[in-house]
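Lecture 7 notes: from sequence to structure.

We start with a single chain of 306 residues. Read the sequence below before looking at the structure.
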Amino acid sequence: MTKIYDGLLLLGEILFLIFKVFYFISESICTMFIPVTRKSVAGEIVLVTGAGHGIGKELAIGYATLGATVICWDINEETNEQTMNEIKQMGKHSVYAYRCNVADREEVFEIAEKVRREVGDVTILVNNAGIAYAKKLLDQSADEIARVIDVNMTSHYWTLRAFLPSMIEKNRGHVVAISSAVALIGATHGTVYCATKSAIKALMEAISDELRTYSKKKSLIKFTTICPALILTGIVKKPRIRFACIMKGIAPQKAAALMIDAQRQNLKETTIPSYWLPILYVARILPNKVVSCIWDFLDVGADAED
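Now the structure, written as tokens:
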């Protein structure tokens, strides 16, 4: 009887699993056609790393425009304060600037505590800071390799350890990580950069599942990984695009607006432009030689820096 009972119980679990799979697939299809309500960020405390220039600057401005309290972090104190001043000139005065080297663990913890005392608990963390050297692996110095890994990947661990505990305590918050489209498909001259961006994607998936597991599926903290294609920030010194008319770069302001929109929709993962996500996932299941032929035809990448 015990075996029969266990068998029926397992059958019930399988049928319930099938039901949930079809339900969530249907739900996902519906969201493609039914507009999703964007949640408000007014009154939230948003911390943006790398806010002194490029995407980070535009993210800070975008969140401030929507009524959030914005905290700007950047290693460049001058440009970071310029971002803060630009926001204040817009009439938005709930903005703060702190010089912080996100690659320095102790500095991250020290400045995070200062933020907590002077502003409050961060409710939206945007890990945006990133650097790149478009070079062959053997042409990169040990310092360059370590620097890219520390800024692009390791820093995420320090900011998460600094700000996630308060989110867990209150069971609310949102973590956004700016990865890259090359996290999904490696590229020449990106042996270090691509690897760090892939690691970010894996980290976000793992921490999201970890919180879901240990909270017994009750965690309300959201995680969004954004994988932009070419954003015209200057991080890629020599971009190479054969068909620029259909694969042109995106201005930082537009990219930032799309990123904020993705966060407000609670998207777990997206690319910018969004159509790259299904394309890149399909590319991963194609034979390697097919992908190489298509990649060679498109001739997209970055030439080596001098």
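The beta strands are 45-49, 69-74, 95-99, 124-127, 174-178, 222-228, 239-240, 269-272, 301-302. Keep this in mind for problem set 3.
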